[in-house]
Write a structure and sequence with these properties.
With about 170 residues, the protein is mainly β. The protein has one domain: Jelly Rolls. The protein is about 0% helix and about 50% strand. A six-stranded antiparallel beta sheet has the order 2-1-3-13-8-11, with no helix packed on it. A five-stranded antiparallel beta sheet has the order 4-7-12-9-10, with no helix packed on it. Strands 5-6 form a two-stranded antiparallel ribbon. The protein is globular, with a radius of gyration of 15 Å.
Length: about 170
């Protein structure tokens, strides 16, 4: 599985931006901030979850059919941060109706109730703080962070992307 990631590192004397693929190293300047984007459609789908077109979404796709009767799930299991620590995770989602979302990060559940973007053509977001662990990109079991998106109690909103920032 390949996860498209976009890194932007802001240092004291300027901005460095690079698009990286799995296996590409990330040089992290001391005292700089992290801003990493992971597209939901690059994850592993289970139990009926699927990618659908979305002109309003960042990669022009989103992951739908999460939760529900089939308990659809999208898993991003190649998430890596430059150092261990607590990060802000922003989940971008789409839903015309009010839905709940469960985001499980490394076994810890973050449950959000009453999410709606107002229409299927508008993206909204929700943020939370969580601990993440540095790992070697592209090597399972090497400390990479796992993200699961679902809703065990009904339909979840469709997921566009996540952004991890320090």
């Amino acid at each position: 599985m390949h996860v498209r990631r976009v890194f932007a590192t802001t240092a004291a004397f300027g901005v460095i931006a690079a698009a990286c693929a799995i296996g590409a190293p990330l040089a992290q300047a001391s005292g700089s901030s992290v801003h990493e984007t992971y597209e939901a459609e690059q994850g592993a789908f289970g139990n009926g979850a699927r990618s659908v077109k979305c002109p309003a979404c960042s990669g022009h796709e989103r992951v739908g059919d999460l939760g529900g009767r089939q308990d659809g799930v999208d898993t991003l299991d190649y998430v890596s941060v430059p150092t261990d620590g607590t990060y802000t995770v922003t989940v971008y989602y789409v839903s015309a109706s009010t839905r709940n979302l469960n985001v499980t990060v490394n076994g810890v559940s973050h449950y959000f109730k009453g999410l709606t973007s107002g229409s299927w053509s508008k993206v909204a977001h929700v943020s939370f703080r969580t601990k993440l662990t540095h790992g070697d990109v592209g090597q399972r079991g090497s400390g990479l962070d796992d993200f699961d998106f679902d809703n065990p109690h009904g339909r979840a909103p469709d997921i566009d992307k996540i952004v991890i920032s320090s």
